[in-house]
Amino acid sequence: MNKQVDNISRNGIRSIFQNSAFLMGGRWINMLVRMFYIVILARLLGAELYGIYNYGISIYMPFFVLTSIGIGQLLSNLVASDKTSGHDIVSQTFTLRLIAGILSAISMTTIGWLTEEIFQTKVLFLFFSIALIGRTLAIWVQEVFTAYEINQHSFHLQLIFRPIECLLALIVLVKGGSILALALVHAISWWLQALSGLKLVRKNIPKFYFSHKLKHISYLLPKCLIIGLTGMLINWMNQGAITFTRYMEGMGNSLGQFALAMQGVLLLSSIIISFNDAALPVLTQSVHRQDGKDIIYVETQMRLAIFLGAISGLTGMFFGTWLVNLLFGPKYLEAGQLLGFTMWLLIPFLWGNALNALYLARSHYQEALLCAFLGILSFLTSLLCFAAHLGNMGVILSSAAGMIVWSVSLIIMMTHPKNIDLKFAVLQPSIIVIISLSVYFIFYNYLAFLLSMIVIISGVYLFGLSTSEKDTIKMLYSFYYSKKEKR
Predict the structure, then answer these.
(1) Residues 138 and 247 occupy one common structural domain
(2) Helical (H) or strand (E) element with 55
(3) Cβ-contact 247, 127 below 8 angstroms
(4) DSSP one-letter code for 118
(5) Distance CA 56, CA 115 (A)
(6) Final residue of a domain: which of 149, 181, 212?
(7) Is the CB of residue 7 less than 8 Å from the CB of residue 293?
(8) What is the pLDDT of residues 157-207, one digit of tens each?
(9) Is 440 part of a structural domain of the chain?
(10) Domain check: are 76 and 9 in the same one?
(11) How many CB atoms are located within 10 Å of the residue 444 CB?
């Protein structure tokens, strides 16, 4: 067995797993702290002040999204392609991100001061605008660490500054501080994280500088916009069903049922997306070496999507109603029934994400955008046809249609589609899933569920993994065990 060809290099595998773990860990820290923070704010501020504060947040977040414009993905791609000039790329994207942050902050402040009549709300917009620039730079720092495969720094920054923000906010609330003081704490915490992150960037990339050459920045901007627009379309395929169906006639209160049923998909897909973000530098290096490891990675992700979607779907079908009733009460019974169907959306969505990462690694930005557009077009067309007649099931079918068209078009438009072994990546794992589903529906009891899980898990190891991937799993286990022993 030629390990240089048959599997991803040990250093590449370790880099992907380590950096995805740090990246996902940082996001989970932020998520958990924010959940705790939201509960405390809602209880201590009261409904009126909490509403005003969140109104400011609801205006602030879309402006923050606009500052990203695909810079992170482009940064990972370009740095991995040529690390000798990485400091130039880092410096140029810093300038681009800073300009985007400042313009967004000015726009937000201007809108607030022109449209709001209450002075307190105007100042709230101003403080959130200040936070916007700091947060923009802090996220850029995280993207630099991802590009250079040193995400442990991002994890440490999140571990320090997110709890600090929460703690300072609690102190402000206990001392009787206003929502303006909370917004100021929010701004200060993100600026401290940004400044600390910039110091770390300067330490790890000594040649980092402020680039003022507009020619270089204007060269990056079109690519950033294409990648950013692609990311927005992909995000709408995953979450847009909730947004679009909000205004569709006949959906009524059942929209909340659908939104709750989608949470499992959003959570699990975010884990895989973090994995792909961390893998992008390694994939780009593989593309330039032309060693075929990028294809192996995508094939592995496609098989993982089938098995993960099947396990999640079967679990949702059997335990969904019971679990949702236990956690949220009988009023969300429909959400529990839908959970078994929504979880199957993981398969086409994760296929598309893995293939999209390959397109980014190969710098096929326009093709990725076209495929995402075809997916959204299919989603919207199906939504108009099915949602009014089939309700939430129509929305699920529409989401599936959009994701399938997106992922299949990515396969068709590849320069060398035969590079992906569809028999091994799709057909074999699908047969295993069909067998497990047959066992489940024939008997439909606890024993059938257990047997179907055994079929899938056995099939994963016996038929769903190549010999080299089994060796990779053993290597990862040995690597983890050796790190644990050292501690």
Answers:
(1) no
(2) helix 47-66
(3) no
(4) S
(5) 13
(6) 212
(7) yes
(8) 988 998 898 889 889 888 888 889 999 999 999 999 999 999 999 888 877
(9) no
(10) yes
(11) 12
Whether residue 286 is found in the same domain as residue 174: no
Q: How many domains does the chain have?
A: 2
Measure the CA–CA gap between 138 and 187, rounded to whole angstroms: 12
Segment (H or E) for 242: helix 214-245
Does residue 276 sit in the same domain as residue 336?
Answer: yes
Angle between helices 263-289 and 293-328 (to 10 degrees): 170
Close Cβ partners of 298 (under 8 Å, ≥ 6 residues apart)? 354, 355, 357, 358, 420, 425
**Buried-exposed string 467-478: b where 16+ CB fall within 10 A, e elsewhere:** ebbebbeeeeee
Locate 106 and state its tokens.
């000015």
Is 44 inside a domain boundary? Answer: yes
What are the residues whose beta carbons fall under 8 Å from the beta carbon of 203, sequence distance 6 or more?
A: none
Are 147 and 116 part of one and the same domain?
A: yes
pTM for this model (two decimals): 0.71
pLDDT above 60 for 484:
no
Say if residues 437 and 424 touch (Cβ distance below 8 Å): no
DSSP string, 222-239: HHHHHHHHHHHHHHHHHH
Q: Which domain holds residue 158?
A: 3-212
- Distance separating alpha carbons of residues 348 and 372, to the nearest angstrom: 13
